[in-house]
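Instructor's aside before we start: the two examples that follow are unrelated to each other. I chose them only because their records fit on one page, so don't look for a connection. First example below.
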Amino acid sequence: MKMADEEAKTSAFTRNKLISFINAEFGDDVKQLARAKELLEKLSTEKDIIEEKLSLHVTAVDGDSSLRTTLQTAQEAHKQIDFLVLEEKEISGKTAEHVCKVQPVVEQFLQFSSKVQQLEKYTHYLTWILKIDEFSSSIRSALLIKTENRAVEHYVQLTTFSRILDSSSCRQLVIYANDTVLYWYKILLEKFGNEFDDVLKGFGWPFIASPDTKQQQTNKEQIADHLNDRLDVAFICLIRLQLPDALLTKEAISEIIPGWRPLPLPLQFLVKPLCRRFKYHFCSKKMTNNIKKPEWYMTQLLTWVRDHSSFLEERIQPLLDKAGFKYSTAVSEFTKGLLQLAIEKLAADLPKLGQDDVLFSHTVQILA
């Protein structure tokens, strides 16, 4: 039934095609019918030529042989395609069957792979812990045999290690590294800080007494010659003994002055005794703590800078240069430490200064 319908559609298409062709050739002019015989002969000739070219059994000219070869090649290609399609279906079937067989093995392999990756993470984690412990052991050994420079060197390596770990998602490991850094920082700071304080006392630091006689100055210079080596070692060790930024306490970073960075540790020790004196005289209930006399504490700070500049330039600046702080000057760092005292004092007095215009203007004039 379906085949009959297709044949009917083909016949109707052919008939319509023929009608269109005749109308195109003859049109409405009856005289054109005389061309019917001529048209028939032309179409018969074209039909014979086409049949001759399509015949695969008749010897033909080179052009006809090329067409036959092309058709044969197409037929062979079609056969190959059919063969490949069948082969692809066969291979697909075998592949699907093989996948079903190996699926349990694949799942088991993935489980083993996951366990291996987990064990590798544990191994790396333990490796980091062992490395931290190795640094700790090296610092402890260096301190026992009194090789302070090596102890500081291992501490610097430990802080570098902790900075690398700071971005890790293993928070307990980060905490362990930071706690280890803080532990050794406190021990080394106490050791070298005490040594540095003792050396400074040997130099008579801070210089707050009345001017010495010539004989006293000569004696101090002779004493100082024996302290230079100790000063060198203690200073270099302290300046390398810096905490990573992530471990700096809020107290170490001034909230009053945005962007204020802590002084290098040796400069902090140089300023520390003067800080105690400043707070005793100008931040307590002493008579010198007079809000109406800001020139008192400003004059004192300027006097300290003047009295200590020579020592800072002659003995501290070379050590700063040696430590790689060539773009910092000892006097400027020392002054900055004292300046922080003035800023903190002013911040504490501001609420009262704001209530008295005359007093406020006087303070601004002194500080300007």
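Example two begins here.
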Amino acid sequence: VALSIPNLRQTSTHRLPCFLLLFCPCYQCLQVTGFFVLESFVQRVTDDLVGPAEGALLWAGAVRPLRGTLELALDQLGSAPLMLMVKDFVLLACVALERARYQVSLVTEVLLSSQGRYHDLLASQLQKQLAAAVDADVLTELEIRTEVQHNKLVAEYGLPWQLEGAANARKVQLNPRGVPPLPYSAPFTASVPEMMRLVRRFVSDSLAYLRGVYSDAELLPAVLHQRDRMLSKVVVEVLSAKAHSIGSSEEMLRECMKVAANVWALRTAMDALDDWTIDQVRPEAASAAAAAAAAQATTPGAAFQPESSSSTQAPQ
């Protein structure tokens, strides 16, 4: 089925089926891209058949209804993955059009203006998942018995393995792999690693939409902004709801203290989350740093550098 742009816009007062909302903008992008890529080729191989002015008028007449189709689809799609599919297809078409020397800023502006709706859909889904994880947590101690558990639930997310400043805090020496003596009881409950996993997935989904919409220099601030916006709203609301659901008995008071410990553990993990976010946005920098560290670690005597020769020379 091939729907024209005017026909699609006439149905904007009704909710279209998802498959039409997904198909129509992609189909129109395909039509427009194919036409103007061929048009660019014709302009290059022929003389005065289609002049630059006529080509510019054709493009100006096509880009406006295409923009309207995209705005309608992205405004009505109720799924973040579907919005991401449309965005990826549109950017692919924009790359082809830019290579044919057409200005696509009016098209990419639609993707930029739709990022708020995309992240709202992501945040709504995340809030349900976080609430389910927190509600299922019975607030019992999380026992870490193996090194695999430690790496998967604690070290992976930069979570603390003991409560800092506590009277029973142990002063122990970590093994060469940075693992404390096992077994031990983590200062947080089972929902905290799950929350960190879900937060990371939000960041990955956010980056998937913003990459290509923002320049390389603008990408990291944009991702951090959306992440921090989500943390300050979604995560805080979920934890506040959990704390307010606890009563005032002695047992419930202990549960409230465990919720407070969970909040502290999440706050402690924010530095590691920052580093992980930067690595996701700039993987080439992270790979270069890892390669340099590995090369230094494998260099014989790298850990024992001799003193500068200037300190051992006899005075002149």
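The beta strands are 142-144, 184-186.
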